[in-house]
């Protein structure tokens, strides 16, 4: 009995070790900088997207299977980003002959993991990351300039001018160098209950109460007045419980302030990394935030992505500032506001911008093939391969296609917001961006909970900003 | 308590103990002691993942100075100790109550199923259980708030306010770790011979007295084990907090673990993070040794 | 007799209350896995699902590679448990049974290793594993988890071996048992309850570990369950709580089986305790 157990144990042990040893071959591909494969005619077919036939899936004829045998490793966040890349990679592999491996890491830990590897392990040839991080990599010399490749091996259809200019500038360029291609545009949007704003009865009531016409607010003043009107606490006749909502939980709360900061003429940091918020603009943005708190849900400070969106979809909120992803909650089956929501630019007209960009690491083993992949996934037709994974286009020509524009009623507002946006959600300061985020979060939360006075919070933020930015040797 | 160890004299026997402990010693040396010293070395560098590698140099004790003058980090030490105190006390008390019930003769014949049920919380992957807790503690859609309102109480912004957030963090840890304490304490209670109880009851001692005078002293070793293991783990808590509150609201639920993690990985300052981890390590040693000492001394 | 029954009733009542409190989150996870998105974020919450759907399970298998993660996790956890128990009982026996040079040092060293915050190891492991080429392998995870499990396992085993009477070992020696024979045939069977308790702990720690697997694993084919499951949470997209709960429920099954099947060994602790008397 015991002998038997002994043997079984031994077998299991050896087996598992052998098995795991088999998996341990790390795939290091050869150091081939130049294409090796033969150039040949390839024909890549993809199913139509939104009824559009994709014709340019061979890099404008520059791929032709000549990257055969080369391997590209791309790192990004698990979920939509990885899925979108995987989808496009299929066609790129057919066209170029190269193999593409998408490695993805869970949200919340992806940034750490990728930074660790960029700095130490050098497994990745390309990274798809939030813009502030990409700029940090650029400052740290971890990603390379794309210009040489654009000059030598670009597809004839590259057409850099076609990228939305503000995106190419704020995502792609860092200190005048082209370090990345815009991949996913992102901006805070203004969502409002179109059905209520268009209801003549409600319009009448609003007129009686305030003496003004009920219009979708663009100025902060109108915003507050409409928010008050739609809050039951202040107006028992209000059709909604809360006039305003957003996410004010930790990691999100700074947006409520940032969305107004630029509107009043402030900025997080100027081009010399000097804080530019401890002024009238910063203070007024704080004040607006506290005003909005009156019209926001009592649980505001606890509302993260899921609860805040569910609340809006339940119809209890008149207006909300949120990322474009709210759209899928609005359109979901359980939503009570399906088809009743309008989209616009956040009141004040200077929304906070997010966004993702794709870049090539400076240790890329097959730089030319990697560049071609970057170009491929951001090309005019390549962009449409990611649109079904919530990756909105970054090129003007795609927004000009009627099929694309019709596919999502949010797109006009998104386009307007992208050109109006001035502040990045993660401060565009290399190395310490994440730290600055937490500094802002702690200060904003302090103000929202009444523990900090707005001016004190601004002072504290400014001091901490200066200290952190100085500590990494950036000029002030 | 300590058994006399047979002293082996023969030369061939000399090597025997080392053969037994050899594999463990090798693994621990290579994968714990070496990395620990490596980390100690890193803590003396200005190692920042986002800075170019060429800028890395020795900075002596700068990182330690930075961490020890870092207000939020010092604040997090205080909260970590408070958190540890409450969770460990609740863990051990609840674990002991459960172990006593399950060991009680009157129910012990049918406790099989209960024992299995009680250890389930430690089976669920923390990433799943914490996400579930996050839904349950939800402000608007959470069942806990719904129950409280049904009972006529006020709904609570569990992760939006300082005290409730702290309580929520403690609840999650107590929930997750009590089964472990129960498991060890059941094993402990079973080492107590039954005849001791019988003679005590014949002498007329009541049950409470028997528990404190006889049972507790006999299983003291196990309690020391449970407490010190739990203290070590409670001091290290961080992933549940990262998922539930991210240290918020503000920085009120930041523990040493979350602060060090954020310093090293979110802010990429690995040098300072490692220094923080070393400070953390020293604190854990001190606190654990105090516990061990207290319990051991008590015994003699 | 009446008093006896009342007490019995009180004890059961207490047990049931504890069970409800401790199992509620698990109940919530399991029921959530059968709910549609609309049933999850809802006021009032559905304590008992008004309708049941298998959609989440379908999605877990079609959209996510839960099968791969599951097998990886099992391979890692089972191997870690076996290695941890073998190496751990060996060392526990060695420490408990012999006096030798460096005994105290190593005992303390092992206890102290248990106190090291796991974060300390992340960067060194990454760099070392990169150098010797075992990044992104299950083997790397196994040796790391085994080492992490050892201090606790050794500590537990030492305690259990210490409880065994000295006379027994002497008798074994007289009977002509070698030291390995004594360990394998006499000591080990007597601490089976201890082994089971330690095995459960080691298995669960390895099965549910997240931070190190995050750092050491890169590709989808080598991901373990916690890594795969946490990938379902995207920050700017509604969390698929149903799918997540379904994945959690699937991940929960081996642990559940473990909890149910090891009961009788834990019970056997009574016999182990009796040895002393």
TrEMBL record, chain A:
SUPFAM superfamilies: Periplasmic binding protein-like II. InterPro entries: Bact_solute-bd_prot1, SBP. This is Sugar ABC transporter substrate-binding protein. Pfam families: SBP_bac_8. Belongs to the bacterial solute-binding protein 1 family. Residues 1-21 form the signal peptide. Coiled coil: none annotated. Keywords: Signal, Transport.
From TrEMBL, chain B:
SUPFAM superfamilies: MalF N-terminal region-like, MetI-like. Residues 77-291 form the ABC transmembrane type-1 domain. The keyword Repressor does not apply. Keywords: Cell membrane, Membrane, Transmembrane, Transmembrane helix, Transport. InterPro entries: ABC_transporter_permease, MetI-like, MetI-like_sf. It is found in: Cell membrane. Pfam families: BPD_transp_1 (PF00528). CDD domains: TM_PBP2 (cd06261). Gene3D superfamilies: MetI-like (1.10.3720.10). It is a multi-pass membrane protein. The chain crosses the membrane at residues 20-41, 77-102, 123-147, 167-189, 210-232, 275-295. Belongs to the binding-protein-dependent transport system permease family. This is Sugar ABC transporter permease. The lineage of its organism: Bacteria, Bacillati, Bacillota, Bacilli, Bacillales.
TrEMBL record, chain C:
Its main location: membrane. Keywords: Cell membrane, Membrane, Transmembrane, Transmembrane helix, Transport. It is found in: Cell membrane. It is a multi-pass membrane protein. CDD domains: TM_PBP2. Residues 70-262 form the ABC transmembrane type-1 domain. The chain crosses the membrane at residues 9-30, 69-93, 105-127, 139-161, 182-207, 241-260. Belongs to the binding-protein-dependent transport system permease family. This is Carbohydrate ABC transporter permease. It comes from Paenibacillus haidiansis.
């Amino acid at each position: 009995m015991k002998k038997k157990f002994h043997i079984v144990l031994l077998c299991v042990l050896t087996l598992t070790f052998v098995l795991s040893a088999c998996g341990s071959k790390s795939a290091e591909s050869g150091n081939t900088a130049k294409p090796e494969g033969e150039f040949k005619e390839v024909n890549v077919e993809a199913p139509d997207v939104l009824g559009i036939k994709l014709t340019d899936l061979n890099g404008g004829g520059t791929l032709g299977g000549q990257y055969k045998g080369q391997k590209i490793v791309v790192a990004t966040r698990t979920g939509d980003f990885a899925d979108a890349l995987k989808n496009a990679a299929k066609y790129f592999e057919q066209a170029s002959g190269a193999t593409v491996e998408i490695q993805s890491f869970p949200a919340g830990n992806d940034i750490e993991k990728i930074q660790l590897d960029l700095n130490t392990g050098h497994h990745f040839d390309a990274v798809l990351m939030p813009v502030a991080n990409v700029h940090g990599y650029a400052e740290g010399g971890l990603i390379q300039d794309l210009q040489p490749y654009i000059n030598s091996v670009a597809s004839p259809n590259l057409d850099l001018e076609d990228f939305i200019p503000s995106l190419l500038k704020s995502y792609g360029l860092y200190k005048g160098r082209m370090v990345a291609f815009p991949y996913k545009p992102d901006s805070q949007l203004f969502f409002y209950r179109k059905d209520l704003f268009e209801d003549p009865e409600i319009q009448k009531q609003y007129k009686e109460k305030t003496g003004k016409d009920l219009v979708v607010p663009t100025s902060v003043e109108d915003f507050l007045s409409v928010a008050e009107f739609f809050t039951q606490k202040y107006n028992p006749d209000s059709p909604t419980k809360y006039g305003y909502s957003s996410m004010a939980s930790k990691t999100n709360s700074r947006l409520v302030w940032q969305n107004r900061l630029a509107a009043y003429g402030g900025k997080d940091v100027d081009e010399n990394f000097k804080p530019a918020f401890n002024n009238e603009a910063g203070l007024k943005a704080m004040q607006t935030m506290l005003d909005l708190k009156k019209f926001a849900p009592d649980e505001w400070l606890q509302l993260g992505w899921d609860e805040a969106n569910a609340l809006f979809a339940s119809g209890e909120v008149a207006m909300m500032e949120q990322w474009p992803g709210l759209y899928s909650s609005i359109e979901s089956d359980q939503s009570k506001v399906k088809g009743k929501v309008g989209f616009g630019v956040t009141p004040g007209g200077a929304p906070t911008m997010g966004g993702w960009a794709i870049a090539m690491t400076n240790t890329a083993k097959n730089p030319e093939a990697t560049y071609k992949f970057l170009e491929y996934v951001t090309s005019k037709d390549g962009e449409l391969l990611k649109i079904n994974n919530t990756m909105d286009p970054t090129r003007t020509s795609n927004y000009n296609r009627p099929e694309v524009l019709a596919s999502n009623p949010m797109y006009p507002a998104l386009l307007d917001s992208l050109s109006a946006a001035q502040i990045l959600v993660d401060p565009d300061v290399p190395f310490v961006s994440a730290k600055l985020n937490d500094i802002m979060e702690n200060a904003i939360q302090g103000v929202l909970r009444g523990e900090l006075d707005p001016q004190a919070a601004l002072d504290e933020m400014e001091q901490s900003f200066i200290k952190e930015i100085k500590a990494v040797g950036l000029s002030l | 308590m300590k058994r006399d160890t047979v002293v082996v004299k023969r030369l061939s026997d000399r090597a025997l103990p080392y053969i037994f402990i050899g594999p463990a010693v090798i693994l621990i040396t290579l994968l714990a002691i070496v990395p620990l010293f490596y980390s100690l070395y890193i803590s003396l560098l200005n190692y920042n993942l986002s800075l170019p590698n060429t800028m890395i140099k020795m900075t002596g004790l700068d990182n330690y100075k930075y961490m020890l003058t870092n207000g939020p980090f010092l604040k997090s030490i205080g909260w970590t100790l408070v958190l540890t105190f409450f969770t460990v006390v609740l863990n051990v008390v609840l674990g002991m109550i459960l172990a006593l019930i399950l060991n009680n003769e009157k129910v012990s014949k049918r406790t099989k199923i209960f024992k299995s049920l009680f250890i389930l919380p430690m089976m669920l992957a923390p990433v799943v259980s914490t996400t579930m807790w996050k839904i349950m503690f939800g402000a608007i859609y959470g069942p806990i708030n719904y129950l409280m309102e049904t009972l006529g109480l006020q709904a609570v912004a569990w992760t939006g306010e300082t005290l409730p957030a702290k309580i929520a963090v403690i609840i999650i840890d107590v929930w997750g770790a009590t089964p472990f304490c129960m498991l060890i304490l059941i094993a402990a209670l079973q080492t107590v011979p039954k005849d001791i109880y019988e003679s005590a009851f014949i002498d007329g001692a009541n049950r409470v007295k028997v528990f404190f005078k006889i049972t507790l002293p006999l299983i003291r070793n196990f309690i020391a084990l449970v407490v010190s293991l739990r203290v070590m783990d409670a001091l290290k808590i961080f992933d549940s907090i990262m998922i539930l509150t991210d240290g918020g609201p503000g920085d009120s639920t930041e523990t040493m673990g979350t602060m060090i993690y954020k310093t090293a990985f979110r802010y990429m300052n690995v040098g300072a993070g490692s220094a923080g981890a070393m400070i953390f390590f020293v604190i854990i040693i001190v606190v654990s040794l105090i516990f061990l000492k207290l319990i051991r001394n008590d015994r003699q | 007799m009446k008093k006896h029954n009342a007490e019995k009733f009180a004890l059961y009542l207490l047990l049931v209350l504890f069970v409800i409190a401790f199992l509620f989150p698990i109940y919530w996870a399991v029921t959530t896995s059968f709910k549609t998105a609309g049933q999850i974020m809802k006021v009032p919450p559905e304590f008992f699902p008004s309708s049941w759907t298998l959609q989440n399970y379908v999605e877990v298998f079609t959209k996510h590679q839960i099968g791969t993660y599951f097998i990886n996790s099992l391979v890692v956890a089972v191997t870690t448990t076996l290695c941890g128990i073998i190496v751990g009982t060996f060392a526990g026996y060695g420490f408990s049974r012999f006096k030798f040079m460096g005994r105290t040092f190593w005992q303390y060293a092992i206890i102290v290793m248990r106190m090291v915050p796991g974060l300390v190891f992340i960067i060194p492991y990454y760099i070392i594993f990169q150098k010797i080429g075992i990044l992104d392998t299950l083997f790397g995870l196994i040796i790391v988890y085994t080492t992490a499990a050892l201090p606790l396992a050794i500590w537990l085993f030492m305690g259990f071996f210490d409880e065994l009477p000295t006379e027994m070992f002497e008798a074994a020696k007289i009977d002509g048992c070698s030291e390995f024979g004594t360990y394998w045939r006499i000591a080990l069977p007597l601490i089976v309850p201890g082994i089971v308790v330690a095995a459960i702990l080691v298995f669960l720690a390895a099965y549910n570990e997240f931070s190190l697997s995050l750092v050491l694993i890169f590709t989808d084919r080598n991901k373990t369950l916690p890594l795969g499951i946490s990938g379902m949470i995207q920050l700017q997209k509604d969390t698929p709580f149903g799918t997540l709960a379904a994945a959690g429920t699937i991940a929960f099954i081996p642990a559940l089986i473990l909890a149910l099947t090891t009961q009788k060994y834990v019970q056997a602790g009574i016999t182990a305790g009796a040895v002393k008397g």
